[in-house]
Every structure is written in C-alpha cells, then in structure tokens.
Amino acid sequence: MRQLSTIADLRVFTSGAPRPLGLVPTMGALHAGHMALVAAAREECASVVATIFVNPAQFGPAEDLARYPRPLSEDLSMLEAAGVSAAFVPPVEEMFPAGSATTVHVGAPARPLEGEARPGHFDGVATVVAKLLLQVGPERAYFGQKDAQQLAVVRRLVADLDIPVSIVAVPTVREADGLAVSTRNAYLSPEQRAAAPAVYRALAAARDRFRIGAGVPAGAGTQVRAQLEAGCRERLAREPLIDAIDYVAVVDPETMAPWAGPGAAMLAVAVRMGGVRLIDNVLLE
C-alpha cells in the first residue's frame, strides 16, 4: 500500500492505477463501519484509495476537533491488511493552503436536521468531498448509510456539479446490541454505552409500526408521519441517560424534506448523552 501526502503524488498514482478506482473518504480512527466501506470498494473496484483527513472545516467552534482521535499507524495497518491500494493522508495546509477562499454550499438537503443543529457543518463536508473527488477522480465513492444526510448532500453535490462518479451507499454497521458503530461511541461512559442501544430500539420499533401487515398487531401499525415521530420520541424519552433529543424526523431520504408519502421514507434521530451526540436512522419500507 502506498502512503501519499501530496495532491501531486496522489495524481501520479491514480493516473496509472487499474480501473475502476474506488474512493473511501474517512477522518481516520477507523472502525468496522469504515472497513465495510473498504470491503465494498475492494469487491467492486480494481484499485482503492482511502483518505484519512480530519477536516477542520466541518467542525463547529464548540465541537471536538482537538480531541478527535488520530491513531494513524493503526489506521494505516488496517487499510493495508484490507487490501487498499493507497492511503492519502494530507496535512491541513495541503487541502486548504493559505489564501483558500472557496466553499461549496449545498442547499435543500443540507438545511434541516444536522444542518440546523450544526451550522456550517455541511459546507465543510461538501467542500472537502468535492476536493477529494476532483483530486482522486474515482469511478465510485463509498459512504455509509449511518450518515444518511451526508449521503444525500454528497449525491446532490455530485449531480449538481456534474462530477462523473457513482456514489455507493453501504448499510450501517451495528454492534450486537444494535448501536450504530461510530468513532464517538468511545466517548461514552460504561453506563451510557449500556444505555445507548435504546436509540436503535426506538428506531426499530417505529420501523416495525410502519410495516403494516408484517407481524404488527392489529391497530398498532401506522404510516402517519406525526404518529411515527411521536412514538419514537416517547420511547427515547424513557431512557433516563438520554439528556436531550435534538430531533426525531421522518423524511424523504434524498431531499431530507418531511416525508409526505408514499415512496421512500427514513426515520432519523439525534440525541445527547452527556457530552456525546449520537445520530442514527432507519429506512422505512
């Protein structure tokens, strides 16, 4: 596996790499969710570039940029063992040199939910993803369903800017108790970690209610957005270690607009446990 730190070296590498080429963008601190992205890329692509870049542009002033874990040697070992062709690990000044003055702003799908809770976050995401796609030039790029709004933003970005790449969604990887795998899970106390699966249980219960006729008791099912949201919120509120519920929303998974039915639907939630913010979602079908 090649380790690259400059855009110039990256472009030399990709110019001779066997195609199709897959891109797996990460911020490091790799876990099973990231490795599922790598595995999907390895299965479909002749070459895979994984990037490790803790993007300061997507962190708010009160967020955890300084303490975000950076176990680079362990990350590189994992990527090499998984068969990644090259790891692109640029310093901040390579990605955002002095004088940088361009930001990519995506509209509608970036506004609600995380967009409201974390102003400016998706501008940072869209800008760095656009740069990576242009720098690497992959045929396919892999993103996790867990960060579903990010996925929608990236798809809108690619469509609007005519970037010739397929965005591939990889299903959420979960622990045995249902908790979505996330770098921030490491910040949970043992008591919080034991309580955190309540998030997925609330989502799964709403998904089961949506599946009218799929084993749901008579009269218990619903496809009414307000009822699904209220039921999920009520279940989350039962867990005393959940300190705040930022949002519970049934949305169109492409636009992030409130779901009006029929068609594709997604239930997304964000909660806070102490200083840790957990997000998760399930598709309703």
Distance between the termini: 40 Å
CA-based shape: globular
Largest sheet: 6 strands, parallel
CA radius of gyration is: 19 Å
Could you state the CATH homologous superfamily of the largest domain? HUPs
Number of domains: 2
CATH secondary-structure class of the largest domain = Alpha Beta
Residue-averaged pLDDT, rounded? 95
What string, H for helix and E for strand, traces the elements in order? EHEHEHEHHHEHEHHHEEE
Low-confidence region ranges: none
The CATH architecture designation of the largest domain is 3-Layer(aba) Sandwich
Strand order of the largest sheet: 1-4-3-2-5-6
Number of DSSP strand runs: 9
- The helix tally amounts to 10
Describe, in plain words, how this protein is organized in 3D:
- The chain is of the alpha/beta class and 285 residues long.
- The chain has two domains: 2-170, Rossmann fold (3-Layer(aba) Sandwich), CATH 3.40.50.620; 183-284, Pantoate--beta-alanine Ligase, Chain: A,domain 2 (2-Layer Sandwich), CATH 3.30.1300.
- 36% of the residues lie in helices and 19% in strands.
- The protein has ten helices and nine strands.
- The chain has helices spanning 7-16, 32-44, 72-81, 92-95, 114-117, 121-136, 148-160, 190-195, 198-210, 225-237; strands at 2-4, 21-26, 47-52, 86-88, 140-144, 166-170, 244-251, 265-273, 276-284.
- Strands 1-4-3-2-5-6 form a six-stranded parallel beta sheet, sandwiched between helices. A three-stranded antiparallel beta sheet has the order 7-8-9, covered by helices on one side.
- Strand 8 and strand 9 (276-284) form a beta hairpin.
- Helix 6 (121-136) crosses helix 7 (148-160) and helix 9 (198-210) runs antiparallel to helix 10 (225-237).
- The model has no long low-confidence stretch (mean pLDDT 95).
